[in-house]
Amino acid sequence: MTTITLLITFFFFLMTLSSSTHPQNFTVELIHRDSPHSPLYNPHTTPTDRLNAAFLRSISRSRRFNHQPQTDLQSGLIGAGGEFFMSITIGTPPMNVLAIADTGSDLTWVQCKPCQQCYKENGAIFDKTHSSTYKSVPCESSHCNALSTNERGCDESKNVCKYRYSYGDQSFTKGDVATETISIGSASGSPVSFPGTVFGCGYDNGGTFDETGSGIIGLGGGQLSLISQLGSSISNKFSYCLSHKSSTVNGTSVINLGTNSIPSGLNEPSSHVISTPLVDKEPKTYYYLTLEAISVGKTKIPYTGSSSYYYPNNDDVSVKGNIIIDSGTTLTLLESGFYDGFGAAVEEAVTGAKRVSDPQGLLSHCFKSGSAEIGLPEITMHFTGADVRLSPLNAFVKMSEDMVCMSMIPTTEVAIYGNFAQMDFLVGYDLETRTVSFQRMDCTNTI
């Protein structure tokens, strides 16, 4: 189930929104899953405990990005590993639900009565029979056909489109495809409604889903995601700014939707805004970039990873789109063959510390000092057309007073550019020009 994992759980509270039919702009506040404001906050866990839990979710989540043929589609993130929650209302009259917001999923779904099988949920379960705006989607409709053949079915006796998803942790959901009015609460006091939104009404759901959530809100790049359905109303543009302080009570992160969400002055030296092309690949759910090299200080190392996992017989395609950018994964995962040389270059560049093992066995390169201050190298990610210079907070994580670890690990599967590397950048997605932009800023002060 992704996944846009520092891992972040959030509610959306719209700050502004025009009521006109023209493209609109609005900003939404994000609350980190480990913030005291989060419903998942546990005051008894230590910062190190929270980090290790986040790293485990990163590793589990990464396996959900591996797109291989199967009976049911394997989607974004693990059931209990959702890092973002979104507070919405659904139906008429509106009913409040809390669902995992996932940049690695498309179809939004919530648990629905009457249940054949529903997992335990803290809140009430949506009852479609109590809503005047619920409408089933026919089997031969364009909405139904937007699902892959592995995802969809048909109740021919009722002419109702069916969906089915299974996830890498054996969690699953099945139900009816329908349209409904979905609303998001506005800070001005008036909810913003999106009638006719396609979603899944799940009556057969199980696995490791968290009791806090009602289902999944899809924010991926596919046709049925919420981002795609809003489409022209937000000019096919959105951005987010994730604060490295967002796990604290004073930290704030935001997501912006609409024309004004994309920073101006792209690729102009004075604006410090750089952009790189999005690469169109299957599955369209994910946002693919091309990583050409990584520099450790002044040492530039060509990136040898590829997406041959997806296209084993097409060398030309595999060079492009070799990494997925994902705001729901904490760590950055890099192709293991490349990582050996990259890790060695980092180890050579670190000063004032010796390399040690991560006590939890999760992170590959950790460094421990005595009384000396640890000197960390600058890491630069060289995407096509965009050199993104990372601060130490983007590339390393402080595990204790005298130990830091690199927040990048090797993988034998698909590479992922995680959210630690994206902290304190305004990351903009222009789905019309098919580009992703980066602008360094203090995301704590974006509202």
From TrEMBL:
Keywords: Aspartyl protease, Glycoprotein, Hydrolase, Protease, Secreted, Signal. The active site is at 102, 326. Residues 84-439 form the Peptidase A1 domain. InterPro entries: Aspartic_peptidase_A1 (IPR001461), Aspartic_peptidase_AS (IPR001969), Pepsin-like_plant (IPR034161), PEPTIDASE_A1 (IPR033121), Peptidase_aspartic_dom_sf (IPR021109), Plant_Aspart_Prot_A1 (IPR051708), TAXi_C (IPR032799), TAXi_N (IPR032861). One of its GO terms (cellular component) is extracellular region. Residues 1-20 form the signal peptide. One of its GO terms (biological process) is proteolysis. CDD domains: pepsin_A_like_plant. One of its GO terms (molecular function) is aspartic-type endopeptidase activity. It is found in: Secreted. Belongs to the peptidase A1 family. This is Probable aspartic protease At2g35615. It comes from Raphanus sativus (Radish).
